[in-house]
Design goal:
Oligomer: single chain
Shape: globular
Number of domains: 2
CATH superfamily of the largest domain: P-loop containing nucleotide triphosphate hydrolases
CATH class of the largest domain: Alpha Beta
Number of helices: 9
Order of helices and strands: EEEHEEEHHHEHEHEEHHH
Distance between the termini: 43 Å
Bound molecules: adenosine-5'-diphosphate, magnesium ion
Radius of gyration: 18 Å
Number of strands: 10
């Protein structure tokens, strides 16, 4: 098991009177033989979700506490952690395969191996037939899949996703949720993801961490099992129709809006 750990991490941006995040602890485990953790951060806007993801990515330095991978302090971005943002830039004039192959080239994968590996990664995100398509020919959901395939090219231990599905229409978004679960199950990565979708959090997470602002702190942690049920073969629609799912949604909604003035 490999662990990405934030231990009582605080974030304080230069020139700001108050910290953005105070003493947040998170742990994302990644197993070499089975599924890792799928940790989802939820909470109202401004509660520090992106700040925490950026600490994990090594883009923001904590003002207090410690961020580590297997005990080694995170001092910057690394190929062990791949980040996908909401509107990640692909090269529009290249094909899907070339976009992924570019990431492989940066990793030092020899030229003769790149195309095949790129196709394998595209298959993993269910874009096996689209390798020859140029980015401008692809829908938003397909582009986001290419972005995920490109992130996986680095063979990361952890995927860090900041509202990766936020720009997609509802139907595409639902389909991408199962793609993410398939990918999580197949690629054996640990995932830290930010979303503002309550249902999305429940469908995907093995653990949901609810944050509240002023400064950002953890108010609740839920261990959930809906994503594991999908990974074990249960249809997503059946899972969402389960009364336990509705109950969990109500409880999570309460936790997010608790303490907020009506
Ligand atoms: N680069 C920055 N400089 C100064 N303040 C920032 C910066 N990034 C975020 N903040 C502030 O930190 C708080 C948390 O922001 P953020 O992590 O983006 O929250 P979330 O992603 O949950 O909406 C907010 O008050 C935001 O305005
Ligand atoms: Mg954010």
């Amino acid at each position: 098991m490999t662990h990405l750990t934030l231990d009582k991490v605080s974030v304080h941006y230069d020139g700001q009177p108050a910290p953005a995040v105070e003493r947040v602890s998170l742990d994302i485990g990644k197993s070499d033989s089975g599924r890792g953790d799928f940790v989802v951060l939820v909470g109202r806007s401004g509660c520090g979700k992106t700040s925490l993801l950026n600490v994990a990515a090594g883009l923001v330095e904590p003002a207090g506490g410690l961020a580590t991978v297997d005990g080694r302090p995170i001092t910057g971005p690394g190929s062990d952690r791949a980040v996908v943002f909401q509107n990640d830039a692909l090269f529009p004039w290249l094909t899907a395969r070339e976009n992924v192959a570019f990431a492989l080239r940066l990793r030092g994968v020899p030229a003769d191996k790149r195309a095949r590996r790129a196709d394998e990664l595209l298959s993993l995100v269910k874009l096996g037939d689209a390798g020859d398509k140029r980015i401008w020919e692809l829908s938003g959901g397909m582009r986001q899949r290419v972005g995920l395939a490109r992130a996986l090219a680095a063979e990361p231990e952890f995927l860090l996703l900041d509202e990766p599905l936020g720009a997609l229409d509802a139907l595409t978004r639902e389909r991408m949720q199962t793609t993410l679960l398939d990918l999580w199950a197949a690629a054996q990565v640990g995932v830290l993801m930010v979303t503002h979708g309550i249902e999305e959090a429940l469908v995907l997470a093995t653990r949901i961490v609810v944050l509240a602002p002023g400064p950002g702190h953890v108010v609740r942690t839920f261990e959930t099992h809906f994503g594991r049920r999908y990974a074990a073969g249960e249809p997503i629609r059946a899972i969402k129709a389960d009364p336990a799912f509705a109950a969990a949604r109500a409880e999570l909604t309460d936790a997010i809006f608790e303490g907020e003035a009506a």
